[in-house]
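Morning, I've got a small favour to ask if you have a moment. It would help a lot if you went through both lines with me. I owe you a coffee for this, so here goes:
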Amino acid sequence: MTGTLRFFGAVRNVTGSKHLLEWKGETVLLDCGMIQGRRDESYKENLRFPIDAHALDHMVLSHAHIDHCGILPVLVREGYRGRIWCTKGTKDLARILLEDSAHIQEGDAAWLAKKRRDHQKILPPLYTVEDAQKAFPRFKGVDYYKSIKLSDNITVEFVEAGHILGSAMVVLTLKDGSEERKLAFTGDHGRPHQVILKDPARLPDVDYLICESTYGGRSHPDVSGVKESIVRLIREQVDKGGRILIPAFAVGRTQAILYNLHGLLENGTIPDLRIFVDSPLASRATKIIADHPECFDGPTRKIIESGKNPFYFKNLRYVRDAEESKALNKIDEPIIIIAASGMCENGRIVHHLKYSLPRERDLVLIAGYQARHTLGRRLVKGDKRVNIHGKSYPVHARVLSIQGASAHADEDEMVENLRHLTPHLRRTYVVHGEEKASLAFADRLGKEGFDDVVVPEEGVSYSLE
């Protein structure tokens, strides 16, 4: 009984998740994510597609975030003709996220073509909207906890991950005659007791585990006072007459922010100010999330059943039109603008930052993890000047990071939800973390009784016995 695993992304870094399983002459790709970071460098890395799409037998997707699904249009364009297996929620979200990713790439390429004199440096899109649309028929959405037969030797099951709508931990059952092995992939492991979604479930006993490590070596801070701090900051901005920018991922983070702001407004805890979600994608994503109440936790279901809706309320406006988006910068009163992308790399938040960063009275609230080489990371680090679209901007606005808002489990939460696996596990592969975080988490797992913990090297083959 022998198989192999190779890791082609999200090893010793946090983006570009791609893990290739070979078993009994068949290949299964777990995730097919986009590498994110500095434009030119990430573009070259994403072009270096390491997998023979024609030879791939199966594709299994953990969830719809672009660093996990963002290169699927390339996979299909390059010749993959099988199914893309995922949950129903992931299927619905991936469609709009991939289309949006392609649209952004096309827009960036057109903008650069106008701004750059040296046309040799213009980077065409990795894929177009048409490429993304051609990938959609390959998606097959299935229910959680239902065993799906990929072949005589391989079955797959999706287990609730509690990260975003549709997110799943993947369990593969690998057969060799009368014997079998089980392999689990956490994808992005969510946190317990978060708003809207159900908590992460517990995995069944498995022989092999591929485990994320975004917050390896770290614990999320105590968030008991976070809501009070946000209330204070909002009141201060109202007194200053400044606006609040919240860069947020269109899926998950935007809806969680709305959920909390709705509660604060309902209770009269914050002033009655206007809130704008300036993202057509977030508008579409919110509708999809609202259409999947089976994924909601108990408190969210109770709010909906009471006749209230934390995604659609009086003070909230979804901005779709580009001209309306531009007009937000002419509003001379305190407002909250929530816009993508969450790491400030593209989307409408970039244009609002160009307006607000030089203004001392404005506030930028950054919630969630900021990857290396992103504009969000530079702002959190406290850079006094940043480059946006080739132009330098001073940072006079107040920039604050909301700690503890991540949708990723921290080290303690991961260990708590996975330690029951230790008696059966043969090997654990630690992925999806910057190198320091992955190594720290591997060390912690070893101390917790996880045998044979490996932090993989990219492209190296590891045997499953």
